[in-house]
Amino acid sequence: MTCENIVLQLKGDIERGSVQRKFSDKSYICDILKVLHDSAIAFCQKQEFLVLLEEQTSLSHGIDIEEVLRSLKECLEGNKDVLFSCQLLSTMTSLMIQFEILTTDICTSIIKILTKAVTSAVDSSESCYYKSCCCQCLSQIEEWKPGTLWADREYILKSFRQEKSYIHQDYATLVTKIVINGVCGFHQTDENGFLRQQSVEPQEFRQMVSIIMENPELYTPSGLWHVVTSVKEIVQNNHNISPTIFKPLMLHHMSTMDPVILHLIIFIMVEFENEILTEKEESQIIGSLIRGLDHPSLVPAQRLFFAHWLKQILMDSEKDYGIKKYQLNFYPRVFDPLDCQLSKLMLLNSCIPRLSELPSDMNGALLLASVGYLHKLVWHTGNHRAVVVLFRALFGMYQRHCSRSFSQDINRFIKGLISGFPHFIPHALDFLECLRETTSDSSMYLEILNLLHSQVTSTTSEDLAKDYQYFLQVMRKVSLQKEISPHATIKFLNHLVQNAASIDGSSWILGNGILAVCHNLLVCHGTKQLYTDIGDILFNMMMSYDDMDIQDRALFYYSLLTSATSNKIQEFLKKTSGTQNFNQTISTLLPEGKSDDKSCSKILQANPPVLEWHRNAVTTNFDKEQKEFEDIESYYDWLSSADISIKASYKIQLSKYEKEKVQAISVNVESDNNFEAVKGIQLAEIKSKDSLDVTVHMKPKFPIPTVFRAWIEFTDNMLTYRNDLEEINISLLDMMVPLPEGDQLSLFNKLWPYFTNPESNTSRQCVQSIKIVHKTLEQFSERMNQFCSSYKLKDKENNQSCYGMLLASGHHLLLLCQGKEEQTNVSIATDSYHMLPFVDTFLTEL
């Protein structure tokens, strides 16, 4: 196979991802080596195959790696392309290390090639790029097999001192690696291994380290980091080398604003504390950091680095740098970014002695004044990020200064913030939780919580409606504290329940917040003193709250309150608020013998029925102010905002000779696609001699008569029963009301052509039909007037009459009746074709 075909095959294998599988075949590697020796193949393609060889050769079985290295060495000797030569060296080095054959003859010869290139004269024909690659390969070999290059150290060091180009850094990395291994005592003694011995004079090490540190200006910042940290290890492991070797570097870069270099200087200063710089020089470095912290043109991230390093030097170090003298330098400035202000405040906080040990007037005033700019920013913008920074600063200050006077200052601070910005309450509560976790013995948690509680209970109705969600968060915390009286909380909840509709339309969020506070009150304070107060709140929510889920939960809490002891309720609610199984928890409230989990969710059928209801009346209400309409579309717009609903009134009572009373009653009506969902009705109890009037509110979507199933669920002896009731039958007549007040005949005359002309409307389901009733007009009118007298309009002509009805679904039914001999022709026009079958049935049964 020719080399061109091999190249095509290799490319195809790379594209298909089958290279890894084929490398197990020895001949596959031979094909690659054949391509590498072919001068007709482009060097860029050869480099790609070299990378492939480097990555996949370890997967081959039975390959003679020394033969592969010899073949690659032959390619190197006859090659003049620098990039290809560098890739060859990299591949050979990688293979030698992978197969751990550095002591073989072929590897020794390759190392000599690398060493020869590195130790060649500066003005030799070897390119800088090639030398750089050789240095990096030798560094890897020296790291893998320490002491390999120790014998050539003098020649490498000589070339290193002469090299002043950009590859000086690569030489430094190699020399540093050799010196580190030398300090650790690794020296090559024979061909088979490396032994530890200490035969090198300390003077030689000092000379080599001095040479490494001679030209730091030739290093990049990252390269300088690598070299200096390596030299630091050498100095720390050899006490004959003084740390002052770093002093020229540190003095040269003392005023730099380059974060990488400055970090390196600080790192060395901290590592060799009191060994390199004088006190004055250390103060100069600290001054550079302080200037950088205040420098407005530096990015915030760099300024935060400076703050972190200052903290490391001034506070975390064992040496006393006289931190107090720097405190005024950490006073925040008005244009400092938020994070920088926080860092400065933390530094300033650490500079001030603990207030518990000294009078707190001056120091406490200085601390509170330092957050002045931050406080103004919060006060004038209401920014959430700014207030988080402010609370973090206050928390750090109080954590260090737990004095009584300072806590009072913070109380006043928070009171002013919350009074102006109730939406900061969640941040204030987070602040309190942090205080409780870190300073559990402090009374500040209760003081601030009591303060927030007083502010919430004195809130005006307007503010309460706007920010009730935040106020309820405070109440949830307060209700868990036995030290705070619950009576003000109960009064606050009563106000919310009574005004729920006006505050937030009786939303689920409001109801859930109220019930959460009630839950905490029952857990913390029990029912001994709060039985009546909480019972009233739960009963009102159970009876009048608009959200069904909230009604159900209020009913559940009310049932607990009236059926279990205080201790049982507390035990149950504590478990349900955690991770306990709900069924296992609620079973503790049931009587003995009824604690099976299955009984908790089972609803029993009451047989015979315990409760019954009787229909009183069904009315359709339509309340809307009278108005003149220019066209039909404006009339429909007006009608869409009208409230038209059906009210079915029933009387509920106990069946004869059954029970004295029934408690926790829930009246339910099934759902139907033609009607909006009917809300359930909750009743506290019914006694045997009493009867209760209930009204079911229904809103139809379409004018279709419907029969609803209805049932009652109630509790008795800690079990839940279901009692079926008489069905609710809503007929077409039940849905009808007269046309809006005003000129009804004029409205009839406008609607009729609108319904009967197909081109007059496209969006409504209008239809026209005719029904022949085998009665004279007089007989028909007499019968119609028994049911629809209120819908009859003025006669248009003799022997003709018309009726106009508005239905609860917002649709219309228009009838134009004309007598003809012994029959009446009834023309029907409507904007809902769904009702035609029911209208036909109604007219037939007249």
From TrEMBL:
Protein name: AP-5 complex subunit beta-1
GO biological process: endosomal transport
Domain AP5B1 middle: 203-569
A cellular component term, taken from the record's GO annotations: lysosomal membrane
Annotated organism of origin: Mytilus galloprovincialis (Mediterranean mussel)
Domain AP5B1 C-terminal: residue ranges: 747-845
Pfam families: AP5B1_C, AP5B1_middle
InterPro entries (UniProt xref): AP5B1 (IPR038741), AP5B1_C (IPR048981), AP5B1_middle (IPR048979), ARM-type_fold (IPR016024)
Top-level taxonomy: Eukaryota, Metazoa, Spiralia, Lophotrochozoa, Mollusca
